[in-house]
């Protein structure tokens, strides 16, 4: 068994691209934000005490009868329509049979050969190039419970002392969105995977059917990857990396698996069709279990549920509730904000589009919103190994920080310290400024004294300014700002220096 500390051989990236064509597939699971579960009335609140949101139905007890959640069906149809899918006039559920500790019934109620939505597509933008990702299906199913493996070094079942199971999540409505094989991506395969999941997440949030929190598992991506010799047009043996839970990790997992497959194939080996686990800390995948094919799950129609047959009138009514197409929305926002193509691509690529939009809606200018999210906050998110949206700073916070800068209460340098306080949980931006004493000193007397001190300490510089070399004032401004711990208006300091020396 491969462990998290074992890194398999990798083929250099350029060698992979020279010898092999990648084929990519993505399966994205979206937890719906319905008030109750898919087939029973249990609540779906995240973070409740273990095993407190369960009943005979979601625990799979004998005699319990499921009932389909109508709101979940509605959400599934809206997702399908937003993905340009056909909506089935008639579909039904199936039992997917396999033993797993967090499946209390020993089968998952899902859809097999008759999904509610099929044959769709989503156009994604990667560095100015539009790439069409074809959607094979979007089907309804229920989530599993959650296992916690205690003891051992990896947090996984191998080496654990014992395991605990929380069935609160069992039965929560899921929509699984499955792409057709994405071919011809070449070196852009990792970026296309990330862009697709990012845009899909953006669409799901806009639809209002899920909070799509990757950090909480309400949207999870499985990455399927295979390589075939360049130019053959074939599909190689695939692996499926399960439950990748960040946009950054989706890109990294694709790149890693391409290099791992390449090393095996170039060495004369063969790829094992299996599921693999992604390790965020080490940036590698490790073996999970051999991957089953559809026939191994022994699908058969669910006998306890009636088919779902949405009327065409209802489908068209739901079509009228769809949000603006993400591609069209980005074009509209780019024009409104005055961003260049590169600025917009960077904003989208950083997963910051919605954050910037909300920050602007809260009162910040487009340039200020973009500046904070794509520089200061993006740096901090990268250092923390998390997504921007999960960093712990809200668009309202960013807009308020910028408002404090605009009012002259703080400057950009002090604003960075305000973000330190926000990330440390010290309260609102105003509370952080007060607690840390970050407000710019507006006391003319204190500023004048600091300027006098700087002039006295730097007579040579002062003489240059008196001789008309005004540019030399920068050195004195720096000295004053240092004495004032950055809490001075640099513009006003410059004015005072020139008033005293010219």
TrEMBL record:
SUPFAM superfamilies: GatB/YqeY motif, Glutamine synthetase/guanido kinase. InterPro entries: Asn/Gln-tRNA_amidoTrfase_suB/E, Asn/Gln-tRNA_Trfase_suB/E_cat, Asn/Gln_amidotransferase, Asn/Gln_tRNA_amidoTrase-B-like, GatB, GatB_Yqey_C_2, Gln-tRNA_amidoTrfase_suB_CS, Gln_synth/guanido_kin_cat_dom. Residues 354-501 form the Asn/Gln amidotransferase domain. PROSITE patterns: GATB (PS01234). Its EC number is 6.3.5.-. It catalyses: L-aspartyl-tRNA(Asn) + L-glutamine + ATP + H2O = L-asparaginyl-tRNA(Asn) + L-glutamate + ADP + phosphate + 2 H(+); L-glutamyl-tRNA(Gln) + L-glutamine + ATP + H2O = L-glutaminyl-tRNA(Gln) + L-glutamate + ADP + phosphate + H(+). This is Aspartyl/glutamyl-tRNA(Asn/Gln) amidotransferase subunit B. It comes from Nocardioides oceani. The gene is gatB.
């Amino acid at each position: 068994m491969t462990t998290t500390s074992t890194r398999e051989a990798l083929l250099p990236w350029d060698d992979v691209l020279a010898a092999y064509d990648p084929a990519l597939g993505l399966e994205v699971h979206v937890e719906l934000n319905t008030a109750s579960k898919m087939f029973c009335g249990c609540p779906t609140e995240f973070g409740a005490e273990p095993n407190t949101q369960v009943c005979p139905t979601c625990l799979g007890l004998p005699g319990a009868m499921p009932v389909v959640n109508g709101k979940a069906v509605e959400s599934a149809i809206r997702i399908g329509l937003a993905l340009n899918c056909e909506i089935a006039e008639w579909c039904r559920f199936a039992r997917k049979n396999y033993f797993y500790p967090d499946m209390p019934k020993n089968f998952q109620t899902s859809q097999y050969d008759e999904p509610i939505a099929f044959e769709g597509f989503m156009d994604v933008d990667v560095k100015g190039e539009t790439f069409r990702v074809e959607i094979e299906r979007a089907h309804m199913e229920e989530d599993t419970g959650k296992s916690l493996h205690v003891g051992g070094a990896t947090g996984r079942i191998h080496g654990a002392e014992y395991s605990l199971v929380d069935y609160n999540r069992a039965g929560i409505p899921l929509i699984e969105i499955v792409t057709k094989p994405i071919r011809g991506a070449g070196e852009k395969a990792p970026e296309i995977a990330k862009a697709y999941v990012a845009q899909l997440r953006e669409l799901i949030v806009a639809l209002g059917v899920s909070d799509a929190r990757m950090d909480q598992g309400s949207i999870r991506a499985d990455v399927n990857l295979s390589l075939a010799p360049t130019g053959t047009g074939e599909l190689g043996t695939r692996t499926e990396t399960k439950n990748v839970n960040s946009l950054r990790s989706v890109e990294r997992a694709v790149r890693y698996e391409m290099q791992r497959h390449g090393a095996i194939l170039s060495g004369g080996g063969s790829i094992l069709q299996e599921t693999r686990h992604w390790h965020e800390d080490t940036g590698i995948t490790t073996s999970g279990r051999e991957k089953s094919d559809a026939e191994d799950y022994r699908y058969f129609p669910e006998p306890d549920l009636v088919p779902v047959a949405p009327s065409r009138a209802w489908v068209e009514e739901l079509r009228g509730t769809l949000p603006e197409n993400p591609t069209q929305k980005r074009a509209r926002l780019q024009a409104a904000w005055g961003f260049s193509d590169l600025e917009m691509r960077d904003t989208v690529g950083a997963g910051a589009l919605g954050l910037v939009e909300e920050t602007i809606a809260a009162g910040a200018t487009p340039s200020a919103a973009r500046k904070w999210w794509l520089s200061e906050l993006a740096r901090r998110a990268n250092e923390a190994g998390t997504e921007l949206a999960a960093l712990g700073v809200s668009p309202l916070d960013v807009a308020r920080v910028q408002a404090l800068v605009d009012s002259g209460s703080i400057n950009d340098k002090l604003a960075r310290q305000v973000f330190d306080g926000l990330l440390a949980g010290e309260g609102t931006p105003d509370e952080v400024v007060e607690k840390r004493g970050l407000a710019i000193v507006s006391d003319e007397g204190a500023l004048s004294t600091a300027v006098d001190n700087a002039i006295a300490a730097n007579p040579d510089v002062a003489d240059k300014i008196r001789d008309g070399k005004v540019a030399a004032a920068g050195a004195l401004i720096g000295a004053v700002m240092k004495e004032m711990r950055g809490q001075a208006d640099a513009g006003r300091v410059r004015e005072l220096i020139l008033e005293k020396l010219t």
